[in-house]
C-alpha cells in the first residue's frame, strides 16, 4: 500500500461508556471496534502473547491491558481479514519516564477470513446473543489470568481451578477474595458486577471512531511551510556549531559573545509551533483519546520533542514500520492516572506497525513499536 501521509483521513477514537450489564458486548465473539480497559478481548484467543512478552522492561511486573482497536484496510492481504492492535502499559508510575515508550507494549494480530473463531459472514450479533449464551472458550485456548485476562500458566494449588499469569496476580486475587471463594462451586455470579472487575484493571469502556475534519483556517496564522522550518532548523544548527567551535578556539571576543547570547534568547522565545498546532487540534475535539492514520504522520506535541527518527524495522519480516495511531493526553484522565505527580503520563504515544502488514505465525500476535513524547520543561 502506498502511504498518503497528507491525504489520508485521520480517524478519531472516542470512549463510549457501557452499562455494566452490557459490557459483555465487548467480548471477542462480537469483534468490538475497540475498547479501553477491562481485560483484553483477544482477536485470536489461542495464540495469545506469553507472559514474558507482557512484562514491563523496567520493573519486570505484568503489564496491564490499556486498549485495543480493530483496524483493517481494503488493501490488506488475505491473512489479515480481521486485524486488531492491542496496547498494554506498566501500572507503576516509576516506569513512566520522559520521552521513553518502554513502559508500553503494542501487538498486532491478523486473522484470515476462514478461521476457527469467527464466521465468514462476520461476528455474532450482540443483540441476538445473551450474556449467558456466550460461546465457551475455543479448543486450544490457554487458561486466562483471573486478575488481568492474559496468558496464565500457574494455577491455585488448593482448588486447581483459578489460573494466573504470575505469582503477583495470584497474591492479588487471593487478597481480593479468592481466599474465601477458593474451592467453592459458585463464584462471583451472584455478586454485583463491577467496572472495573478488580482494581488492577482500568475501567472498561467501548470505543467509537469518527473521521476528523479540520477547518482550513486552523493553522492559517502558523507557518505551514515545513521546508522553511527545516531550513530554519538547519541554519540554527549550523550557527550553534560555529558558536561551539569559536568557544573551543577561544576566538570569541566579548562583543560577539553578547550578540550570540542575544540571538539565543530570540531562539528561546520563538513560538513552539508544534505545541500550538497540537493544542488547536486537541481543542477541536477535546474528548479524542486516539488518532488513527495508518501510514500517516504523528501529531507531535512540541518543537522540543526529540526527533522520532527511524523506528526499528518489523522483527518478523524486516519491513520498515510506519505510523499507525497515537494516544492523546485525554485518555489519561479516563484511566484515572492524571494526577500531577507520580502517575503514568504522556503528551503522545505513537504506535508504529509493520508497513507490509506481514503474516504472523499461527495468526498470532506480532510485537510492534511504541514511541512516547512528554511535555518536558
Ligand atoms: Zn514497570
Ligand atoms: Zn495476570
Ligand atoms: Zn483456589
Ligand atoms: Zn512485518
From TrEMBL:
Gene3D superfamilies: 6.10.140.2220
Acidic residues biased stretches: 221-231
CC annotations in GO: cytoplasm; nucleus
GO molecular function: zinc ion binding
Region Disordered, annotated ranges: 217-238
Record key words, sorted: Metal-binding, Zinc, Zinc-finger
Domain MYND-type: start-end pairs: 145-182
PANTHER family cross-referenced by the UniProt entry: PCDC2 PROGRAMMED CELL DEATH PROTEIN 2 -RELATED, PROGRAMMED CELL DEATH PROTEIN 2
Protein name as annotated: MYND-type domain-containing protein
Organism of derivation: Pristionchus mayeri
